[in-house]
Amino acid sequence: xxxxxxxxxxxxxxxxxxxxxxxxxxxxxxxxxxxxxxxxxxxxxxxxxxxxxxxxxxxxxxxxxxxxxxxxxxxxxxxxxxxxxxxxxxxxxx
Length: 94
What we know:
The chain is mostly helical. It has one domain (about 5-90). It has helices at about 5-25, 30-40, 50-60, 65-80, 85-90. Helix 1 runs antiparallel to helix 2, helix 1 (about 5-25) runs parallel beside helix 3 and helix 3 packs parallel to helix 5.
Protein backbone atom coordinates (compact mmCIF):
# COMPACT_ATOMS: atom_id res chain seq x y z
CA UNK A 1 0.00 0.00 0.00
CA UNK A 2 1.46 3.35 -0.99
CA UNK A 3 1.57 6.19 1.54
CA UNK A 4 -1.20 8.06 -0.30
CA UNK A 5 -3.35 4.93 -0.44
CA UNK A 6 -2.79 4.31 3.26
CA UNK A 7 -3.72 7.90 4.08
CA UNK A 8 -6.89 7.64 1.99
CA UNK A 9 -7.83 4.41 3.77
CA UNK A 10 -7.24 6.01 7.17
CA UNK A 11 -9.42 8.98 6.19
CA UNK A 12 -12.16 6.65 4.95
CA UNK A 13 -12.03 4.68 8.19
CA UNK A 14 -12.19 7.88 10.25
CA UNK A 15 -15.15 9.06 8.14
CA UNK A 16 -16.90 5.75 8.80
CA UNK A 17 -16.39 6.15 12.55
CA UNK A 18 -17.64 9.74 12.37
CA UNK A 19 -20.82 8.56 10.66
CA UNK A 20 -21.32 5.90 13.33
CA UNK A 21 -21.00 8.47 16.11
CA UNK A 22 -23.34 10.87 14.31
CA UNK A 23 -26.23 8.40 14.04
CA UNK A 24 -25.72 6.26 17.15
CA UNK A 25 -28.00 8.34 19.39
CA UNK A 26 -30.83 8.69 16.89
CA UNK A 27 -30.61 5.61 14.67
CA UNK A 28 -28.77 2.72 16.35
CA UNK A 29 -29.77 0.34 13.54
CA UNK A 30 -27.96 2.54 11.02
CA UNK A 31 -25.00 2.83 13.39
CA UNK A 32 -24.79 -0.96 13.65
CA UNK A 33 -24.91 -1.29 9.85
CA UNK A 34 -22.09 1.26 9.57
CA UNK A 35 -20.06 -0.70 12.15
CA UNK A 36 -20.47 -3.89 10.12
CA UNK A 37 -19.54 -2.05 6.92
CA UNK A 38 -16.47 -0.60 8.63
CA UNK A 39 -15.47 -4.00 9.98
CA UNK A 40 -15.63 -5.44 6.47
CA UNK A 41 -13.80 -2.57 4.78
CA UNK A 42 -11.21 -1.94 7.51
CA UNK A 43 -10.90 -5.32 9.24
CA UNK A 44 -7.45 -4.62 10.67
CA UNK A 45 -7.82 -0.86 10.87
CA UNK A 46 -6.74 1.13 13.91
CA UNK A 47 -10.32 2.22 14.72
CA UNK A 48 -11.75 -1.30 15.03
CA UNK A 49 -11.72 -1.07 18.81
CA UNK A 50 -13.85 2.07 18.82
CA UNK A 51 -16.21 0.63 16.19
CA UNK A 52 -16.77 -2.42 18.37
CA UNK A 53 -17.50 -0.30 21.44
CA UNK A 54 -20.11 1.55 19.39
CA UNK A 55 -21.57 -1.76 18.21
CA UNK A 56 -22.21 -2.75 21.83
CA UNK A 57 -23.91 0.59 22.48
CA UNK A 58 -26.05 0.22 19.35
CA UNK A 59 -27.14 -3.31 20.25
CA UNK A 60 -28.06 -2.15 23.75
CA UNK A 61 -30.04 0.78 22.37
CA UNK A 62 -31.93 -1.63 20.11
CA UNK A 63 -32.88 -3.78 23.10
CA UNK A 64 -30.74 -6.69 21.87
CA UNK A 65 -29.29 -7.31 25.33
CA UNK A 66 -28.00 -10.85 24.78
CA UNK A 67 -26.14 -9.81 21.63
CA UNK A 68 -24.78 -6.71 23.37
CA UNK A 69 -23.47 -8.80 26.27
CA UNK A 70 -21.91 -11.36 23.95
CA UNK A 71 -20.23 -8.69 21.86
CA UNK A 72 -19.09 -6.86 24.99
CA UNK A 73 -17.46 -10.02 26.34
CA UNK A 74 -15.68 -10.53 23.03
CA UNK A 75 -14.58 -6.86 23.10
CA UNK A 76 -13.12 -7.29 26.60
CA UNK A 77 -11.22 -10.38 25.44
CA UNK A 78 -9.94 -8.74 22.26
CA UNK A 79 -9.05 -5.42 23.90
CA UNK A 80 -8.29 -6.22 27.56
CA UNK A 81 -6.49 -2.92 28.22
CA UNK A 82 -8.88 -0.68 26.31
CA UNK A 83 -9.74 2.72 27.69
CA UNK A 84 -13.26 1.98 26.39
CA UNK A 85 -13.74 -1.12 28.57
CA UNK A 86 -15.81 0.58 31.26
CA UNK A 87 -18.05 2.22 28.65
CA UNK A 88 -18.57 -1.18 27.00
CA UNK A 89 -19.40 -2.82 30.37
CA UNK A 90 -21.93 -0.08 31.14
CA UNK A 91 -23.51 -0.25 27.67
CA UNK A 92 -24.00 -4.00 27.95
CA UNK A 93 -24.87 -3.89 31.66
CA UNK A 94 -22.14 -6.38 32.54
